[in-house]
Design goal:
The structure is a single chain. The protein contains 1 helix and 7 strands; from the N terminus they run E-E-E-E-H-E-E-E. The chain has one domain: Nucleic acid-binding proteins (OB fold (Dihydrolipoamide Acetyltransferase, E2P), Beta Barrel), CATH 2.40.50. Helix content is 7%, strand content 47%. 17% of the residues are buried. The protein has a 5-stranded mixed beta barrel with strand order 1-3-4-6-5. The chain is mainly β.
Amino acid sequence: MSSLNKVMLIGNLGKDPEVRYTPDGTPVATFSLATSENWTDKSGTKQERTEWHTVVAWRKLAEICKRYLTKGRQVYIEGRIQSREWNDKEGNKRRTTEIIATQMVMLGSRQQGASSGTGEDSYDPGPETGQPFGDAGITDSDIPF
């Protein structure tokens, strides 16, 4: 039986994307995304819980995120969950879980920075690749960690 690792999130950016480059010049954007859950508890008090996600975008999608996304912007992110481990400066083992983005759609109004009056902007790479935007053939060997 096959497996599935797919994430779909709608949330707001906690900070502007930070872009770095791998030794071969591949752009990688990282940003935090907040998703919130609201409910009313048994006593009738409204409650809210916010989850923070670290999102990583590669190549052309990283460049688009850097150019168009800003803190507070509402976006739809589609991708997969990936965990990794490393040792910090003190030699302690650390672990993080990230969302590796393959698709991004900007949501919200023009006041939030949208470039069209429709309230939504998505990106298509055009005829060069024939693939949905952001799904640019990333393999595990492209990931430097």
